[in-house]
Amino acid sequence: GSIYLGEWRNNTCTGEGIYRAINGDIYRGRFINGLIYDQGSRTSFDGHQYIGDYLFGRSEGHGTYRWPNGDNYVGSWMNNDRTGNGVYIWANDDRYEGEFLCGELHGSGRFQCSNGKKLEGQWIHGIYIKTSSSSME
Length: 137
Known about the structure:
There is one protein chain. This protein has no helices and 13 strands. It has 2 domains: 1-58, no CATH class; 69-137, Histone H3 K4-specific methyltransferase SET7/9 N-terminal domain, CATH 2.20.110. By secondary structure, it is mainly β. Strands 1, 2, 3, 4, 5, 6, 7, 8, 9, 10, 11, 12 and 13 form a 13-stranded antiparallel sheet that branches. The chain has strands at residues 3-9, 12-20, 26-32, 35-43, 49-55, 58-66, 72-78, 81-89, 95-101, 104-112, 118-124, 127-129, 135-136. It holds the Pfam family MORN. InterPro entries: MORN (IPR003409).
C-alpha cells in the first residue's frame, strides 16, 4: 500500500511529509488535506523527477522536470503541464527557449541545435511556422 511519514492534522496528511504512493512514486514537501502544496518534489518509480511549485496536488508555478533519458525542462507550469515561458534542453544538448502550451512548443521561441544552428520564430502546437522575422543561422 501507500505510506505517509510526516505531520498529521484533522485525520489527514497536513504539514511537512513524505508520501510513497502504491505505484512507487515519492512525494516530498508540504501537504494540505492530503495534497502536496507549495514547494515540493515528485520522483516517479521510473526515474522522472519534478521539483518546484504545487497547488492542490498539481504542478503549478515554476519548476524543473527531469526525464530519465537526460532531457530537462525549467520554467512555468499550469495544471500539471508545461505552459508559459521555459527552457527545454534535450539530452543531445539541443535547446528551445520560449513559450509552451500544454507541454508543446507554442508561441515565440528560439531553438538552437547542438551543432550551432539556430531557428527563431513562432511555433503552433509543436510545429515551426516560418514568419517574416524568423531566421535560420
